[in-house]
UniProtKB/TrEMBL annotation, chains A, B:
Annotated InterPro entries: Aldolase_TIM (IPR013785), HMGL (IPR043594), PYR_CT (IPR000891)
Keyword Lyase: yes
PANTHER family, sorted: HYDROXYMETHYLGLUTARYL-COA LYASE
Protein name in the entry: Hydroxymethylglutaryl-CoA lyase
Organism for this UniProt entry: Blastococcus carthaginiensis
Gene3D superfamilies, alphabetized: Aldolase class I
Family: Belongs to the HMG-CoA lyase family.
Amino acid sequence: MRGATDAGAEETQMNEFDLVLPSSVDVREVGMRDGLQLEAPVPLEAKLEMLEALVATGVRRIEATSFVSPRAVPALADADQLAAELQRWPEVHWSALVANPRGAVRAVDCGMADLEYVVSASDGHSRANAGRSTAEAVAAVGEIAALAHGAGGSLEVIIATAWDCPFDGRTPVARTVDVARAAVTAGADQLCLGDTIGTTTPLRVVTLVDAVRRACPGIAVGVHFHDTRGTGQANALAAVQAGVTQLDASVGGLGGCPFAPGASGNIATEELVYMLEESGVRTGLDLDALLAAARVTEQAVGHELPSSLYRAGGRSVPRSAGGR
Amino acid sequence: MRGATDAGAEETQMNEFDLVLPSSVDVREVGMRDGLQLEAPVPLEAKLEMLEALVATGVRRIEATSFVSPRAVPALADADQLAAELQRWPEVHWSALVANPRGAVRAVDCGMADLEYVVSASDGHSRANAGRSTAEAVAAVGEIAALAHGAGGSLEVIIATAWDCPFDGRTPVARTVDVARAAVTAGADQLCLGDTIGTTTPLRVVTLVDAVRRACPGIAVGVHFHDTRGTGQANALAAVQAGVTQLDASVGGLGGCPFAPGASGNIATEELVYMLEESGVRTGLDLDALLAAARVTEQAVGHELPSSLYRAGGRSVPRSAGGR
């Protein structure tokens, strides 16, 4: 069976491949919001300990909380109190998620003017998650943007189900692009593409990022991946290769899916930082400090976190061997 | 805070990025060997059920077992009996791992002539795993290659600790390249680079693959990744972008590390296939059949498998929503 050698000869005639990556990226820590929102409520004091540990990692963009109905999301019912504490860390660029203009008013009143607003690209998810169609959700962008801008802040529209919807199936690229364009026209300052249910894959990532950028020149496009099917870090790698420099991640991979028990949630911040820093992409985050923050987070939520890197004990290699 | 818009403008001036991928790759299923080797012994009958399920996935390269000391690896003590059953599936290209010429004789006597032989690129791992230095391990390649070739087969040398060693730290690229060159000179027909402890990252993958190919023109170079730190699929993506078309993976992600309880083992075949097929890379493997094979495997080993995709229930999306 020497045929393999011939296949090899073919391969080595290929052009060399260079992994072209940006020199740095900007990681946003979303564990405090997307991570905690489905957890049993964590006391404010424990959240402040998490924040202390997260700020110590060097991360300078943190999604702190959301101003939504306390009945809908009891875990984040303390948004007003939490917001009042954030001045402790003036070096951090804080953002907060809102679900409607009422939430935006509340956030601005709490001193948070850099807002995120979610629009589901699919009607099925939009109705299930927000009780209205995509078009109705888009219609609120202008008012929320005006509130943010009036307070000296900015509005990022996060497009949920940008690739796939649990109700409607695949989201056509043109549909997500239309939502992106409409959001920017209505006043969004930046966009984020959310793989809400963790189904997308590298080629689809690159295709959608490219399409949205063409449709919205001059607008930063970030990405928000879940690792539900093991492709989260590969998707992040593809996005970064495509020149995306704004990535969401959650400490310890916090952020489970209610419909997939045991499945991973957001991509883990420490895994993203490990992959990128070791590949020469600066994040400004310290891996050991991230593992310490994951420990604080694990104590706060009272259960194991899904991050493989965290469970493996970090970058370093235990001094006992096995396998190949 | 409108600064983000300026950053976006910069981004959109970048050239478009194309994810260039091969049209097809060749996945080798290693769950029967690397996956089972650290498990409590599974009865032969259950192994044959696993094989039946694996062959039904469409995979046409399977690492069936290893011919090593039954005392060292009791889980694979039935190699001779297993080998006798493989003629049931003549469509599959079987391989077996051997640790020395004695094992090669045994494999060939059992009708298995396509052999794999592991050489650790680092002395620390080589001594711990095989009781000899890297140079001593390389010295056996010629004899094993002659045995394989004499039986009409081939020899693949798997370079363990190709990137990192749990004892010696980082393996210099030049050291792994030297081992590769020496193995080929001694008669190896193909090579496989093993990330034994799951520490490597995309840029290092591309760098080493490129260096080994330059040193060994005409020789196929495969990759063997573990997902211990969440980077396994991203490493596979980088390798495939670099033109690698031979990848090892294990059904369900079977194959734990003895020194990192709870950490993932080999990259999961179904996650690799999902990522690649959805990105337009043909594998010949059927995802639903892989999930069925993972169920059979889970029953055989009697514990949960680490694969996120398997735990999430596959590609399809349950009809209930949450999160963004």
